[in-house]
Design goal:
This protein has five helices and two strands; from the N terminus they run H-H-H-H-E-H-E. It has 162 residues and is mainly alpha-helical. Helix 1 packs across helix 2, helix 1 packs across helix 3 and helix 2 crosses helix 3. It is globular, with a radius of gyration of 15 Å.
Length: 162
């Protein structure tokens, strides 16, 4: 039996090239990154969002790395393009619900060592290129975000949902 090879696509391929460049420049400027790093971070944020939008409703929550999260926040500022990103692909929009620590201020995400490998695996299984070094950073309520992309396993007040 022959193994089937999956050709992975980049997150950047999901948006207009001119908009990708514009968004990447904003990420670089606002977060003190060089152009190449900003492009990589932006690419990974788009792959993450596409994965969240397409995952089954009963799938576990996916979590954003601290390194990639700034690109998601910058993308949301372009409200028209952000909405169109999901609509053009026929996906439900992944909304942003920032973590504020919950009712008692003690809600935190699971350790990065537990959740980031699951996120990376989901992105790869969805057919996107993963840049592993951008998925090594910590996950916590002070600096990053998780999702409920598709209704699966939401964290109270610390989530992103569709």
């Amino acid at each position: 039996m022959a193994l089937q090879t999956i050709e992975r696509v980049t997150g950047r391929s999901l948006v207009d090239p001119a908009f990708f460049e514009r968004l990447s420049r904003r990420v670089a400027k606002n977060h003190g990154l060089d152009g190449g790093t900003a492009e990589a971070v932006t690419d990974q944020a788009l792959a993450y969002l596409a994965t969240c939008a397409q995952k089954p409703k009963d799938a576990p929550s996916l979590f954003m790395s601290r390194a990639v999260d700034p690109a998601w926040h910058e993308f949301m500022l372009y409200t028209e393009q952000y909405d169109r990103f999901f609509a053009d692909h026929g996906w439900e929009k992944v909304n942003h619900n920032p973590c504020d620590g919950g009712v008692n201020g003690d809600q935190v995400y699971p350790p990065a060592a537990e959740v980031l490998p699951l996120t990376v695996e989901a992105i790869q299984q969805a057919g996107y290129v993963v840049i592993p070094e951008l998925w090594q950073a910590a996950v916590d309520c002070e600096d990053t975000c998780g999702d409920d992309g598709g209704g699966g396993n939401p964290l109270p007040t610390c989530e992103h949902s569709i």
